[in-house]
Amino acid sequence: QVQLVESGGGLVQAGGSLKLSCAASGRISMYTMGWFRQAPGKEREFVAAISWNVISTDYADSVKGRFTISRDNAKNTVYLQMNSLKPEDTALYYCAARGGLAIVRREREYDYWGQGTQVTVSS
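Request: output the structure for the sequence above.
Response:
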């Protein structure tokens, strides 16, 4: 059983940066880790994912080139560095873990979820 807690959200101006953290209660070395987000009135959408061996990453087109997902298995923590933030990035950001080796984008493929951290980008 893995519990996830996100942190690092906040209010930033467009063009600014934030770094989100996701701390896991259990060891995540063999888990695929992902970030999702949900804006008001919209469905939760995939943002980024990283494989257990850190070799592979995947990004939504909307964030590619601006966001970077990383992980530190020794610290049981996953990060999302967000640069050049835009107002449309405003959302509740969720960390998720999948007990499998493959990187996937579908929400239902992930086994564990955090409660989310709010990111608000002003223009």
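The mean pLDDT is 94.
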